[in-house]
Write a structure and sequence with these properties.
Elements: H1 2-8, E1 11-15, H2 25-41, H3 48-66, H4 78-112, E2 123-127, H5 141-169, H6 177-183, H7 191-198
Parallel strand pairs: 1-2
Helix pairs in contact: 2-3, 4-5, 6-7
């Protein structure tokens, strides 16, 4: 019964534009950086110069926040709203959703000795950003087209960053004969990386 419920589970996260959101992306980015500094300071193994560098950066960020207007002076355009949504995806959902799925899989494995399929698609994203003609008279077909192109660009950028990390980690030289054949032969030094570049 639980397995069937999991198989049928479908979560759809709908990204919507919030023209009433008054916090500026600039300030939110600075606060994220402050959080990163505070997390780094939580390590016991920092040497003095590392701690001093982090504290210097933290003081810079706090001063920047202090002197940054907290509230927008102008109403954001539909494209501004879409860019805000992309920031949420990049800074939160891009890592948060896979982390949730890994945690869910670990809980299922521990409690029920089952695993999520590798190609599971429990969570889907949809978006109204740049396309909501009901609530914003400034949304036009051209605005929707631009928002879609920007979302594709952001997705490509995020995937490319992950692929570059993956390729840099594929340095293993030991491999099966079958994998070496896929990579181009026995004389390939890093067959996993070679396949990563070929694919």
């Amino acid at each position: 019964m639980i397995t069937k419920a999991i198989d049928e589970l479908s979560i759809e996260l709908v990204l919507t534009a919030h023209p009433t959101e008054i916090a500026r992306r600039t300030l939110i980015h600075k606060l994220i950086e402050v959080n990163t500094c505070l997390a780094q300071l939580d390590h016991d193994d920092l040497v003095d110069y590392e701690r001093n560098n982090i504290m210097r950066r933290l003081r810079q960020l706090i001063a920047q926040c202090w002197h940054t207007d907290e509230i927008r002076k102008n109403r954001p355009t539909p494209i501004d709203e879409a860019k805000w949504g992309f920031t949420v995806v990049e800074n939160s959902l891009w890592e948060g959703v896979p982390a949730f799925l890994r945690e869910l899989n670990e809980q299922l494995e521990t409690s029920l000795t089952i695993n999520l399929p590798v190609d599971t698609n429990l969570i889907r994203f949809t978006s109204w950003m740049g396309g909501d003609r009901d609530g914003n008279p400034f949304v036009t077909a051209e605005v929707t087209r631009e928002a879609l192109l920007l979302s594709r660009w952001k997705a490509a950028e995020l995937f490319l960053a992950d692929i570059q990390i993956l390729v840099s980690e594929l340095s293993m030289s030991e491999a099966t004969a079958e994998l070496r054949q896929l990579a181009g032969g026995d004389d390939i030094d890093e067959p996993y990386r070679q396949i990563g570049f070929v694919e």
